[in-house]
Amino acid sequence: MQKPTMPQPFAAKSYAFTEYVNLKNWIGGAWKEGSSGNWLDIENPRHGKTMGKMTLSTAKDVDAAVEAAKKAFPAWRATPMRERAQVLFRLKALMERDLDELCWLVSHENGKTYAEGKGDVEKGIECVEFAASLHMMADGGQLDVSRGVNCRVTHEPLGVVAGIVPFNFPVMVPMWMAPNAIMAGNAFILKPSEVVPYGAMKLAALFQEAGLPDGIFNVVNGQRECVEAIVDHADIKAVGFVGSTKVAKILYARGAATGKRMLCLGSAKNHVVVVPDADVQLTSTNIVASSYGCAGQRCMASSLMVAVGDVQKIIDGIADNVRKIRLGEDMGSIISGASRERILKYIEDAQKAGAKVLVDGRGQNVDGAGGHWIGPTVLDNVTLDMPAGCEEIFGPVLSIVHTKTLEEAINLQHKSLYANGAAIFTTSGAVARTAADRLEAGMVGINVGVPVPREPFSFGGFNSSKFGHGDITGWDGFRFWSRPKKVTEKWAAASDASWMS
Q1: What percent of the chain has pLDDT over 70?
Q2: Which residues are known catalytic residues?
């Protein structure tokens, strides 16, 4: 434990293994060691080597973060929204200043390529930009509803709120939550994934440099005990979560039972429907980018292609493009050895059940890197009774199922437990309209393999991909972290009074 714990700049300028600092909690504007006294190794998954260590926290540390947040909340709530926005404007500028450092940091702790890390950070910056604009747009509205009687709406903060985020986007997903929550006037507690905590550490330092008062943004590092303590805490009024459906469902029920607001985003099995009139080049390149970006470790990956009729040219194009992917340069590593073994089992089980392995990524590695690697893999003739056809693999595997008609393809998509995203590739406006109307998913793409909305449009799925009301970003995100207060006022009696006045 000799290494420093201050957020000194991350020195990496390449994929070469780089050690970094040991990491404490950020509570009330200070770095504090977790009360457990234990530390967890933080691994660079590209190399399979420890970058540093992270303090492990207990419910006692969550209590400390809540107390710091409660202490800071009244003054921040009283701060005019326009002044809150100035902090976010400065945060955006600081993130842009440190863009290269943030991208390399995300790449090293997560295993992404630099380009994918840049996408992570730039989308996080976009979320900050949206939140900073809310002071110009979040007027609640007012109306004279009767003679001498006026009604108006204000958006009130909830108090202390929290976010629990996954490993796959160390900067973007925290920025889905924190800027909107803070702009609404809340104090925020972040519990990052224990395997990628450095992004949150850097954000804490940048928030402070931007002038955010101490205690308004706190970071508690830990594992299951921290998650449960956050969800159970009586003084935390709302919790956002992004992770697996299994955990999302448990946490939603647990938190809702305490009366707090819960919005929990879960797993996905995104269907991408391909019909015979689809453009071969557009379709094959976009599906490959969607399926293998971030090594398939994202909830918007097109992991299941539904081939309608004769689309063999497109399947051949996909396979050709997949074979051109350079492991380590175009696609990064798997987050852990356990994830790698789980993904391999999906491939092996599908092959044993009769699926054809068109492109086999098993055994692929990056010379000299070590770490956890699987090359991009394509499975054809998959069926829905195979785990590869119905479960979220969360890895670089595209499964292809076949149907004869568009109607069958849509009905097949409706059978999925998940409904995060769906897409169709076609050159027919009529087919596109039919699919957009009938595919059951919260986000639908037409010739777009990753149909992620950009601000101010919100992110969120249907069915078992989401538990709770509304979406996590955009206007829905702001509304989740605030509550409308309706004020009806009258200052003089009207001479021609109605029942209202």
Answers
A1: 97
A2: 299
